[in-house]
Amino acid sequence: MSIEINKDSPHLQQMTANLVPVHIQYTGDANTNEYFSPSKSTETASGNSIAFFRGLKLVGQPIELPANSTAYLVNKSESMVAAPETPQGFKTVNNYIPEGKLDTLVAYGHDTTLPSNSQYASLVEWDTISNIIHE
C-alpha cells in the first residue's frame, strides 16, 4: 500500500481543528444543521474554550503546533492502480486531499482540560523525538 498527499492546492482555507472526545459509530450523511447547534465561548483568564455537546460540558485547550511544520485537514480516498511488479498486478493507494491548513488545534476534555499525558498534549514532544530519530 502506498500513500500520496497532494499539497499543491494554492487556495487552501485556514481552519481550526476541534478535537472532541466523542466517538460516533456512523459513517453516512448527517443533517447537522437540523439536529446540532454548537455553542462556544472563551474563558478570558485561561484562554480555554468552553463548549457544550448534547448537554455535556467540554473544555478546550489550544495545542501548540510544532514549529516548522504544517498541519492539514484532509479527505482520504483509496484507489487501485496497476502495479506489474506485484504478484497481484495491482496495489492500493491511499490518497489524501487537503481541504484546508490548520492554524489552530483545540483539544477538548470532559468538564476539564486534557491531562498533561494526553496524546494531543504530547504533540510537540512527538515532533521533537521524530526529529532526533531522523537526523
Please provide a written account of the structure.
With 135 residues, this protein is mainly β. The protein has one domain: Lipocalin, CATH 2.40.128.680. Helices cover 11% and strands 44% of the residues. Strands 1, 2, 3, 4, 5, 6 and 7 form a seven-stranded mixed beta sheet that branches. The radius of gyration is 19 Å and the shape is globular. The relative contact order is 0.27. The mean pLDDT is 81.
Write the layout of secondary structure elements.
Elements: E1 2-5, E2 13-19, H1 32-35, E3 40-42, E4 49-53, E5 56-63, E6 71-82, E7 90-110, H2 123-133
Parallel strand pairs: 1-7, 2-7
Antiparallel strand pairs: 3-4, 4-5, 5-7, 6-7
Pfam families: RNase_H2_suC
GO cellular component, one term: ribonuclease H2 complex
Question: Characteristics of this structure?
Answer:
11% helix, globular, mainly beta, Lipocalin, 135 residues, single chain, seven-stranded mixed sheet, 2 helices
